[in-house]
């Protein structure tokens, strides 16, 4: 069952304004060179609309897209809008200097490549050529949320080009006009001059060269000239009775017919092809009575056309008379001899309000009037099957209250959003500016220096009431209706007003019953709630009683009722108070009228039950998960189009305003039914229905008035936010998920959209999507208000409501409320151990973590006792406890929570986080001292992986691991760690600092190995070909140095390093450091040099002691040292003063006796050499001399 029956006999008006996005009009001026018209010709404001041909096709770029315009003086405003996407640069203001726009003088047509706008003014005609939307985008599939409008490049449309305009001769300002495009691209303007007849001005195609032609159609002859106009005297006499007051054109077959409604009440049809009048029909023949009055009437008669494949071309004429205005619908019929006739279909009499505009569709007439009080009246009727010629109702948007009730505890400066915005200001800026202006006005009017609080409040109320009255005047002016626009392809009906656009939506049965006037509720046939005629009649009588109650509950009583609901007071008590006030205010006649009306209700209990069933959404459709996703078989283009359907800011505003209107009207209906119920009880009837539940439900939906602060697309209420982010996608998927959206057109689904959104918002809906949306978008204030309103009585989603409320408290910084709220939840559950309590406990501790870690720890500890043996939930709770203890710096407690975690993977995650955080905090003592029972290998693996993955000079994970092993007296592993550290330093950090660090690491490794027994003083080193393989990770450490416990994939080739091997590496590192300290530029070279290469480098730098030590350590020959020393001696022997100075540098780097401290002669130098030469060097020298002697 759908939410409610939808009546096709009534519609309701919904304002489609965009509150925060006022159209930014770009001004374009055309100067045709005209002078001001004589006599100051002034036309009334007008408006109109145009819908694209493919606007009803889902896969079209122009889906749900239309253009509307309004004219005032010589200015026309054009706006393109879409219900699916937001259009950029979509508004222009075109000003044609000194040329007032003719009412109805704007005609828009589309071709395959262009959108062409034809404009008629009092002195000229113009053509504006724009690109068609299908040619504006790179792909036929539009995927953006915002796209460019056809008006984006309007300044490039050659609006000033003479080929696109034509000046009319002076004194020939047309009364009415029509325009059309020929198949060849010619633009034809049919004008009705004040002298009678029809003049057709033709502009050549916009992409071809040509001249303007003028054709005059009249009854006596046809005269055509290529330029200029025929003087009036030459044309012969024209009867003023054939003056066209309304004109329309329609292309049929290969001809274009001009339909003219003339002053003599005759309908003349002209053939443009034959250039003659082919049909004349006297409309008085279709007037049943009052023909003379109609003939004498000088009213504004109007003419409209409509073509459909089923009915052909139909003509609707509105004949205006003081007392019997009527619509006459005719059908154009072709005979066998290619002649045409008009057959009468129906006549519909209209009310006596002033007609503003009407539209003819394939089956209906839509009318727009203004009554004597300047209020908008809208009606429509079916001219095919409406035998009684009854007009169906359209409930106009109610005018704002003339006075706003301000309670004694309310500030008169409280703002409520209206229906439109006319200033380009943000809501907050506007409030500040208005408040400052009104307060300054109040202060300037005060003449006394002292006021009581009551007197000042009276002044405040008075001045704010004046400001409110001014706002109402502006709103009334902007609400002036100008035209109707109906799109048959999408069933969209718009009312074009001076300041905004409103939409007409089908009315639900309940709203129809409650809003209809008495003359429209005359039988049970208007009650689709029940198929039983007697029950339908009872429902009608009951609704009339409810409306009588509603007429009396106004002003203070209505405010008190609303306040009672807002304060969560008992609706029944508030109802009793309202009823007492009604009886005390002398409403005896009302009670008597209601009592008399109730006597007509045969079964009041059944009638009230049937009415409430339509109000209750708990039995409505549910959004099942399998229906919320479009079928996977649909193409990408269909899915993309569906993702944008009804997604523009215009659609969002219309849907949410309709939802607000629905909630308000039904809340009032529930209120009045509840009062009527108590009146039943007071009168003695045994009727008891729980109406207040529905009243409370609907009062929650009034949250749509709460503002939301968000950027993109500017949703201004929480309902708009919910519709944009959640509801629209689900609803559109449901509407189109069960049918092939590609094959057929897609009419608007306003009722389904609205009813589905209401269903999703209904507090008892199990989906809980609305509160989740509020929480996800940080609307915590509105979320708290929502939970407060439904908390006392809604029994659905209780745990979820408590969860989101706690989250809202926490995000708002209300810590004490969070603590009290959560303890109230958990304490009653400690002995239940239900599944729901565990789930709620887990959810709370999972998300409530911002700002109150101590509270989370306490709650999680309490929840662990409820989790029972469920290891997954216990692991999640212990993880939360560990995290918050660690954040608070409680390292010991965090470690204990880690050890209590029953899930090994969670333990490892927490352990890894503990190591990283304590290292970042430099709290290494705690990290090393923890016992790590059953986690020792995991800790080592984590630290090793971190050490090999980070930069060596900025992190000290190797030193941490060294301390970790030393603390546990595992010296061999400690030495292994430092040996790996030193080897990586030698490869990766070849700087003086790195060399110094490498020497220190070797010393630490040697110390560790010397502390253990010699048979165990060895370490395992992977060979140079054993590279570490860690998929997906590349670290600075290319080799994994360490013992066999390393968690990495290595090859099986290993090397055993004993103490003497480590000592060799130390000596080599020490020599590298010595060379780097002596010559810093050689540090990078020395870092990667082998022992043999280091000997050469040391000898070259004069570091003979280090070279000899290196040769002894690695068992290398001393020949390179002697050769280098001999070379230096020879260089010193034959060198000059500079060579001797350089010698002191390399000699000072070696160990020399202290007696040589000054420069001496050659013998002293020989003495230095003798001290320098050692026994090994002399032996090497003798070996060389002996070899030379043998060669001789």
Mean pLDDT: 77
Q: What would you call the shape?
A: elongated
Strand content: 15-25%
**Structural class per helix/strand content?**
alpha+beta
Number of H/I helices: 36
Biggest sheet record = 8 strands, mixed
In total, the number of strands is: 34
Q: What gyration radius follows from the Cα positions, in whole Å?
A: 47 Å
Helix content: 40-55%
The separation of the N and C termini measures 123 Å
Oligomer: single chain
Query: In order across it, which strands form the biggest sheet?
Result: 26-27-28-29-1-32-31-30
* Unreliable spans: 1-7, 221-238, 417-423, 621-633, 686-690, 703-713, 741-745, 829-850, 1023-1051, 1152-1176
What's the arrangement of secondary structure elements?
Layout: E1 6-15, E2 26-30, E3 46-51, E4 65-72, E5 75-82, E6 86-88, E7 91-96, E8 101-110, E9 114-121, E10 124-131, E11 146-148, E12 165-167, E13 176-181, E14 187-192, E15 198-203, E16 213-217, E17 222-225, E18 244-252, E19 255-262, E20 266-271, E21 276-282, H1 291-296, E22 302-308, E23 312-319, E24 326-334, E25 340-349, E26 354-360, E27 364-370, E28 376-382, E29 392-395, H2 427-445, H3 453-478, E30 481-487, E31 492-497, E32 501-508, H4 509-515, H5 533-552, H6 556-566, H7 571-584, H8 588-598, H9 604-615, H10 636-644, H11 649-683, H12 691-700, H13 718-736, H14 750-761, H15 769-776, H16 780-790, H17 798-811, H18 815-826, H19 835-847, H20 853-867, H21 871-888, H22 891-900, H23 904-920, H24 924-929, H25 936-949, H26 957-967, H27 971-988, H28 992-1010, E33 1018-1022, E34 1054-1058, H29 1059-1078, H30 1083-1086, H31 1091-1100, H32 1104-1114, H33 1119-1134, H34 1137-1148, H35 1162-1172, H36 1175-1191
Parallel strand pairs: 1-29, 2-7, 6-11
Antiparallel strand pairs: 1-32, 3-4, 4-5, 5-7, 8-9, 9-10, 10-12, 13-14, 14-15, 15-16, 16-17, 18-19, 19-20, 20-21, 22-23, 23-24, 24-25, 26-27, 27-28, 28-29, 30-31, 31-32, 33-34
Helix pairs in contact: 2-3, 5-8, 5-9, 5-11, 6-7, 7-11, 11-12, 11-13, 11-14, 13-14, 13-15, 16-17, 17-18, 17-19, 18-20, 19-20, 19-21, 20-21, 21-22, 21-23, 22-23, 23-25, 25-26, 26-27, 27-28, 28-29, 29-31, 29-32, 31-32, 31-33
């Amino acid at each position: 069952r759908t939410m409610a029956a939808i009546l096709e006999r009534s519609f309701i008006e919904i304002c489609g304004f965009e509150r925060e996005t006022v159209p930014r009009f770009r001004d374009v001026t055309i100067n045709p060179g005209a002078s001001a018209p004589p006599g100051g010709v002034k036309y009334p404001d007008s408006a109109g609309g145009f819908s694209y041909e493919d606007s009803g096709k889902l896969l079209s770029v122009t889906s749900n897209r239309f253009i509307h315009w309004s004219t005032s003086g010589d200015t026309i405003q054009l706006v393109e809008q879409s219900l699916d996407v937001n259009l950029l640069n979509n508004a222009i203001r075109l000003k044609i200097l000194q040329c007032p726009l003719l009412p109805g003088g704007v005609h828009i047509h589309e071709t395959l490549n262009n959108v062409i706008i034809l404009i008629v003014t009092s002195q000229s005609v113009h053509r504006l050529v724009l690109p068609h939307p299908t040619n504006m985008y790179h792909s036929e599939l539009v995927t953006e949320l915002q796209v460019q409008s056809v008006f984006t490049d309007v300044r490039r449309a050659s609006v000033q080009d003479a080929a696109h305009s034509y000046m009319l001769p002076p004194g020939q300002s047309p009364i009415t006009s029509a325009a059309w495009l020929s198949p060849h691209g010619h633009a034809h303007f049919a004008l009705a001059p004040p002298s009678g007849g029809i003049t057709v001005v033709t502009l050549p195609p916009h992409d071809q060269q040509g001249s303007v032609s003028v054709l005059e159609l009249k009854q006596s002859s046809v005269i055509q000239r290529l330029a200029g106009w025929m003087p009036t005297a030459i044309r012969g006499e024209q009867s003023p009775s054939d003056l066209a007051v309304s004109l329309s054109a329609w292309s049929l077959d290969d001809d274009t017919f001009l339909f003219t409604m003339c002053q003599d009440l005759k309908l003349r049809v002209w053939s443009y092809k034959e250039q003659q009048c082919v049909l004349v029909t006297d409309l008085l023949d279709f007037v049943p009575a009052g023909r003379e009055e109609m003939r004498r009437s000088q009213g504004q008669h109007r003419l409209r056309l409509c073509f459909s494949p089923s009915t052909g071309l139909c003509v609707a004429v509105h004949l205006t008379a003081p007392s019997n205005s009527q619509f006459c619908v005719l059908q154009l019929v072709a005979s066998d001899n290619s002649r045409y006739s008009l057959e009468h279909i129906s006549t519909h009499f209209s009310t006596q309000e002033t007609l503003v505009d009407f539209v003819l569709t394939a089956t209906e007439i839509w009318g727009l009037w203004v009554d004597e009080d300047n209020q908008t009246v809208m009606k429509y009727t079916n001219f095919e099957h409406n035998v009684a010629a009854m007009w169906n109702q359209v409930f106009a948007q109610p005018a704002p209250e003339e006075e706003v009730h301000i309670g004694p505890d309310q500030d008169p400066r409280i703002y409520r959003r209206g229906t439109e915005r006319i200033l380009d200001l943000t809501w907050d800026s506007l409030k500040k500016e208005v408040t400052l202006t009104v307060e300054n006005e109040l202060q300037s009017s005060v003449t006394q220096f002292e006021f009581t609080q009551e007197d000042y409040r009276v002044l405040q109320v008075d001045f704010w009431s004046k400001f409110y009255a001014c706002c109402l005047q502006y709103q009334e002016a902007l609400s002036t209706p100008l035209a109707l626009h109906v799109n048959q392809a999408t069933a969209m009906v718009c009312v074009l007003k001076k300041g905004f656009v409103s939409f007409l939506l089908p009315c639900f049965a309940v709203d129809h019953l409650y809003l209809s006037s008495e003359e429209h509720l005359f039988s049970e046939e208007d009650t689709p709630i029940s198929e039983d005629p007697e029950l339908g009649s009872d429902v009608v009588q009951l609704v009339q009683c409810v409306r009588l109650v509603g007429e009396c509950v106004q002003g203070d009583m209505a405010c008190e009722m609303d306040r009672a609901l807002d304060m969560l007071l008992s609706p029944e008590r508030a109802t009793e108070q309202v009823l007492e006030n009604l009886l005390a205010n002398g409403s005896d006649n009302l009670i008597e009228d209601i009592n008399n009306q109730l006597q007509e209700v045969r079964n009041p209990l059944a009638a009230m039950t049937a009415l409430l069933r339509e109000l209750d959404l708990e039995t409505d459709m549910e959004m099942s998960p399998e229906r919320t996703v479009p079928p996977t078989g649909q193409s990408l283009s269909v899915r993309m189009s569906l993702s944008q359907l009804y997604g523009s800011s215009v659609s969002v505003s219309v849907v949410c305003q309709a939802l607000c209107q629905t909630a308000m009207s039904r809340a009032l209906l529930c209120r009045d039914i509840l009062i009527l119920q108590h009146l039943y009880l007071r009168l003695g009837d045994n009727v008891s229905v729980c109406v207040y539940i529905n009243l409370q439900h609907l009062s929650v939906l009034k949250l749509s008035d709460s503002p939301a602060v968000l950027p993109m697309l500017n949703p201004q209420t929480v309902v708009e936010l919910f519709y944009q982010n959640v509801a629209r996608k689900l609803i559109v998927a449901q509407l189109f998920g069960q049918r092939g959206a590609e094959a057929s057109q897609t009419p608007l689904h306003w009722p389904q959209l609205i009813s589905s959104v209401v269903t999703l918002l209904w507090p008892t809906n199990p989906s809980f999507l609305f509160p989740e949306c509020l929480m996800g978008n940080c609307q915590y204030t509105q979320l708290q208000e929502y939970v407060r309103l439904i908390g006392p009585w809604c029994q659905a989603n209780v745990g979820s409501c408590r969860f989101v409320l706690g989250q809202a408290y926490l995000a708002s910084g209300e810590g004490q409320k969070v603590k009290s709220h959560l303890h109230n939840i958990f304490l009653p559950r400690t002995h239940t151990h239900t599944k729901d309590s565990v789930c709620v406990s887990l959810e709370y501790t999972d998300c409530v973590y911002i700002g109150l870690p101590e509270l989370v720890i306490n709650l999680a500890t309490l929840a662990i006792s409820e989790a029972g043996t469920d290891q997954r939930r216990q692991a999640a709770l212990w993880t939360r406890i560990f995290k918050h203890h660690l954040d608070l710096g409680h390292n010991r407690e965090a470690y204990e929570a880690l050890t209590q975690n029953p899930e090994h993977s969670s333990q490892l995650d927490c352990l890894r986080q503990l190591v990283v955080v304590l290292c970042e905090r430099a709290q290494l003592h705690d990290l090393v001292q923890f016992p790590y029972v059953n986690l020792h290998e995991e800790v080592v693996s984590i630290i090793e992986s971190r050490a090999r993955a980070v930069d060596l000079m900025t992190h000290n994970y190797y030193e941490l691991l060294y301390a970790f092993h030393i603390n546990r007296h595992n010296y061999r592993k400690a030495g292994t760690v430092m040996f790996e550290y030193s080897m990586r330093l030698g490869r990766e950090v070849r700087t003086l600092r790195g060399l110094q660090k490498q020497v220190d690491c070797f010393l630490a490794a040697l110390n560790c190995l010397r502390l253990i027994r010699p048979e165990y003083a060895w370490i395992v080193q992977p060979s140079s070909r054993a590279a570490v393989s860690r998929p997906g990770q590349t670290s600075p450490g290319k080799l994994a140095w360490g013992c066999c416990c390393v968690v990495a994939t290595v090859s099986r080739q290993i090397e055993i390093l004993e103490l003497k091997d480590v000592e060799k590496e130390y000596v080599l590192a020490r020599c590298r450091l010595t060379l780097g300290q002596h010559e810093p530029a050689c540090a990078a070279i020395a870092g990667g040099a082998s022992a043999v290469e280091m000997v050469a480098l040391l000898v070259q730098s004069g570091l003979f002691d280090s070279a000899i030590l290196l040769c002894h350590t690695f068992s290398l020959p001393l020949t390179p040292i002697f050769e280098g020393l001999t070379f230096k001696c020879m260089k010193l022997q034959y060198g000059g003063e500079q060579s001797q100075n350089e010698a002191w540098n390399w000699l000072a780097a070696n160990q020399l006796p202290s007696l040589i401290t000054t420069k001496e002669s050659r013998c002293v130098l020989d003495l230095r050499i003798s001290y320098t030469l050692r026994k090994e060097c002399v032996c090497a020298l003798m070996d060389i001399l002996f070899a030379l002697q043998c060669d001789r």
